[in-house]
Structures are given as structure tokens and as C-alpha cells.
Amino acid sequence: MDTQDARGRHPIGLLGLGVYLPERVMTNDEWSEHVDTSDEWIVARTGIRTRRIAGDEESTADLALAAARAALADGAFEPADIDEIVLATDTPEVFAPDTAAYVQARLGVGNIPCYDLAGSGCAGFVLALDIARSRALANGRRMLVIGVELITRLMNWKDRNTCVLFGDAAGAAVVGRGPGAVEILAATAGTDGTKSDILGLETGGTRQPVTMERVRQGLHKNLVMDGREVFRQAVHRMSAASLEVVSTAGVSMDDVALVVPHQANLRILNAVAARLGLSDERVFINVQKYGNTGSASVPVALWEARDVGLIKPGDLVLLTAFGAGFHWAAVLLRF
Ligand code: UT7
């Protein structure tokens, strides 16, 4: 649906969408070979049945690049059509420079500006959409927005409290003004930095540099997480952000055809649906297949919802995400 404004301009929105899912599928039973867990426990507590694991030869930039190329192809764009790149990840190619620089060089887009939203948690991609929209609004840029996570390489495969939850993936969108854009009607975001120690990868920065002793203790791959508090906050923040973005757009939750939330845990998604008074078919869920893929989870879910034909022209689709920081964000789209 293309609604031009009073000046005859096309809306700012998504002009292409693409994903990359590593080939290797890992089942819950395979996790039982690494930690004391079971398919029964993982399914009952999280809804997750399988996740993708990146190949040894793949790095974060490889995943991001594949998703970026898919998004360009989806929108029938060439690399030269892109003016700027913003990439959200907590699992970068290297500590510095940022992953966006590696993607820029390999994509062949020329010396355009690019940057990471590093450590933006699982809310990174939705936050980046908001930034991309304002860049397009301010100076007409066509943005490439990427959410990518290769978390299975940086987590502790012996910590059953966290390792079974995650998977690797990348998703990307071209954002700008153009005919047929999936319009970004409204966006909202927030951060509660007082909760920054509750979820994160803490070793490797200046507070806790990597030392031999820390590596010996396995702390270089230690994902800190208070699961119950993260659960509570995820439900609260994703629900509240959804209500806020709907109100900012001047519509009601009844107008929303589909909610595409960050895929953290089936129980979290069910609780968000209950709070928002949404029936099952109005909340897209694919956490059972991919687990929590961090900042890739929302673009992968949106791509899949579109791919299986759940979204019709004119539908309002709401994206909502929450992650380390704590950061949260929501975006309302009109297809
Ligand atoms: O994007 C943000 C990333 N993080 C999240 O989204 C996590 C949000 N939190 C959650 O999804 C849930 O809190 C979990 C799935 C992590 C845990 O579920 P829970 O219902 O909160 O379980 P719990 O933490 O209360 O643990 C229950 C028990 C514990 O044993 P005890 O102490 O009761 O004996 C855990 O040790 O389950 C045990 N446990 C496991 N057992 C088998 C924890 N992990 C596992 C496991 N397999 N993988």
C-alpha cells in the first residue's frame, strides 16, 4: 500500500528484507550431550526445539553480509544504491573496528558511512530501524539496517542456564523513501541503565579485561543473566512499548493485524500476548525453530511472517523487542 504525503512523496519504510540462517540445525537432544538438560525441560520452559549454529568457517560479518545481500535482492537494489549502514550486534567480528566496516568493504558499497549499535541487546535491530528512519527523514539517505548475532561462539557451552536459549542468525532491511515502502508509521524506544548488570557479556572490556586467570575460569565466555528478572522485564517492557507505539501512531491495538515480537522464550511471548489481549494468531512465533537470535530475531521473524503469507497489503504490523541494557523498542509498520 503506497500512501503519498501532501507533497507527493512516498513514505519512509522498508524497501527490502532478507535473512541468513546458518545451515546446521541443533536439536535439544544434542544439548544433553554438553550439559545436564533434556528436550522436555527446554521445550517446557522455553518452547525452543531447535536452533541454528554457524559453521566454524563463518564469522559475524559473513552472516551479516549474506542477509544484507538478500535484502538488497529483495528490494531489487544494487550495492551502489545504499548511502549508509547501521548494524546491531552484541557478538562483533572483532572488538574494534566495528562489524559494519567489514560488511561495507565486502558489500562493495563504496566509502559510505557505517557504524554498529554495539551491545544494543536483542532490541538492537528495532532501535536501528528508528535511527534509519530519522536519517532517511533528515537527509534522504537509503539505509541498510542489519541485526546479526553469532552468539553460540561467545557463550559458555557448559552453562545450562543460558546456552540452550540461543541461536545464530542475521536479518537485514533496506530503509528509505520509495514506492511500495512498508511504511514506518511510528517508533519508540527506551533504556533502563540501572539494570545493566543483570544481562550481558561482561568480560573483555576495561572493567574486566581478558586475563589468563579469567580464561581459565571460562569467564571470557560468561553470559551473565538473571533469568527471572529478564523474563519479568521483557514482558513488561515489550507490552508497554507496544501500547506506546500504537498510541503514538494514533491507532488502537485492535487495528494491529500482527505483532512480531523479539523471540526470547515462548512463555514470554504468551505473557505479552495476554497483556495486550491478543489471540494466538495475532502474535508471530518462530522461537521453536531458531531459539533466541538476539538482534537478528525480529527481522528473521518479520521475514518469515511475510514469507509464509501471514501479512496482507494494508496490514498494520507491530515490532517489539527487549534486551540487555536494558533496552527496548517498538515500531509500527503499514504493509
Ligand atoms: O533476550 C534476553 C535473553 N534472556 C532471556 O530471554 C531469558 C529470560 N528468562 C527465561 O527465559 C527463563 O527465566 C529461563 C528459561 C532462563 C529459566 O526458566 P525459569 O522457569 O525461570 O527457571 P528457573 O530459573 O527458575 O530454574 C528452574 C530450575 C533450576 O533448578 P533448581 O534450582 O530449581 O533446582 C535450574 O537450575 O531449572 C534448572 N535449569 C535447568 N534444568 C535443565 C536451568 N537451566 C536448565 C536446563 N536444563 N537447561
Describe this structure in words.
The chain is α+β, with helices and mostly antiparallel strands and 335 residues long. The protein has two domains: 12-181, Peroxisomal Thiolase, Chain A, domain 1; 185-334, Thiolase/Chalcone synthase (Peroxisomal Thiolase, Chain A, domain 1, 3-Layer(aba) Sandwich). The chain has helices at residues 28-31, 39-46, 60-74, 99-107, 124-139, 212-216, 227-248, 266-276, 287-290, 297-307; strands spanning 12-20, 24-27, 50-53, 84-89, 114-118, 143-149, 169-177, 182-191, 199-201, 223-225, 256-261, 316-323, 327-334. It has a nine-stranded mixed β-sheet, with helices on both faces. Helix 3 packs across helix 4 and helix 7 (227-248) runs parallel beside helix 8 (266-276). The longest helix has 22 residues, at 227-248. The model has no long low-confidence stretch (mean pLDDT 96). The chain binds oxa(dethia)-CoA. The site of oxa(dethia)-CoA has 20 residues, from helix 2 and helix 7.
